[in-house]
User: Fold these one by one.
Assistant:
Number 1:
Amino acid sequence: MQELKKRKEEVKVAKEQKVKAIVRTYYIIEGGKIKLKNKKCSKCGSIMAHHMKPYERWACGKCGYTEFIGGSKKR
Ligand SMILES: [Zn+2]
């Protein structure tokens, strides 16, 4: 939960400072707003869903493929 809050704050700060490409290519900066860019599954090619909990990730509803977004990988 704290991780999520922290992440949102990071985005907010980045937006204020007008920093480009915080999270690689998954976001598009458009008119000062950060938009999520839908990602296609690399396994079956269908549109993936973006989830913030418990970790920020892309998940495919068809084949179950999940791709974690940077910074979420912990061991
Ligand atoms: Zn898939």
Number 2:
Amino acid sequence: MQKRDVVIIGSGPAGLTAAIYTARASLKPLLIDAPADAAQQTTPGGQLMITTDVENYPGFSDGIQGPELMAEFRKQAERFGTEFMEGWITEVDLSERPFQIYVDGGPTISAETLIIATGASAKWLGIPGEAKVPAGFGGNGVSACATCDGPLPAFRNRTLVVVGGGDTAMEEATFLTRYAAKVYVVHRRDKLRASKIMQDKAFRNEKIEFIWNTAVQEIVGTPEEGVTGVRLRNLVNGEEQIFPCAGVFVAIGHRPNTDLFRGQLDMDEVGYLQTSGHSTATNIPGVFACGDVQDSVYRQAVTAAGSGCMSALDAERYLDHLPVEMPSGEEITIEGEHITADRHAIITADGHMIPNDTEVPSDTEVSVGED
Ligand SMILES: Cc1cc2nc3c(=O)[nH]c(=O)nc-3n(C[C@H](O)[C@H](O)[C@H](O)COP(=O)(O)OP(=O)(O)OC[C@H]3O[C@@H](n4cnc5c(N)ncnc54)[C@H](O)[C@@H]3O)c2cc1C
């Protein structure tokens, strides 16, 4: 059994940023991440390992390759003493502190605080041509993130295909019209699942056209050119055609990697972990969540890294016996003291309620601007 003050799960931008901060705070974090596994689409370093150019991460004016960026994150975390372990976490017991973390084929880890940075996975169609280069065209014309890849030169003034019929697909298609010559939304049914406002926006956009009752069967292309088209099948009459395009954006949703925490941590209906508005605390004191696993809205490397920093500061604060704000609005310390959401009372660990008198006596000098 290994005992740790801080355990981090996940080595994407969120987990590695949490590692940099907690390591610099001398908390000797242990970061555990799943091994490279083609079937499960995991690689240490997270989602950016399966992309090429990252043009929007601040600090790299010429852009940087995803794997190169993550190697730099990792080196920085190592420099301050982060310890790394490779393995799938198969179970966690968060019922009491220290928390128990079970690593597949590895030791059980006992943790005073846990930072969850397990990310989210884009849902894929599972069709030929979709896998990552060199098996398919993933990263060379196939993407699941328009914000990330839409502005790349390969897609500018070209014909693109977006697959899906929900809000994500409408958002991706609308965004891509800033760069593409034409965007075709391919949808399996004859109507959309997207909200009315998103549908109306897409219908009004002259650059967007819809191909109804149709499934993408295959993504075709060449290693030199990347994607050159998609094989479409009309689901009403069974007819097939090769439809020429320069890029395919799969927009059928994301799945947060949270099965492990089901029944223990509060989640929304899709499975994203719920955190406090002002901190990254989950409903269990001492468990923090950062990055895509708790963010269904922004899902960017820079926002993941930002919330990784927040988780690290929250964990440090908690280990320093300082109160951390919970999703309920209460603040809780490591000793189990609760400060009520209205901040008027403190409930001690043994159940006593004492007033939380925060009024400053009139004869106390307050220096303005001091933190
Ligand atoms: C193709 C593609 C291109 C992108 N391009 C850009 C871009 O240009 N710019 C940008 O800002 N964003 C981009 N993004 C989005 C960006 O990659 C994500 O927002 C970011 O990686 C989220 O970071 P994270 O740390 O939250 O999680 P992730 O990067 O998803 O990392 C999570 C890690 O947790 C591990 N893990 C999950 N479950 C377990 C478990 N049970 N046990 C052990 N380990 C586990 C996973 O293996 C993974 O390594 C792109 C995404 C994709 C898919």
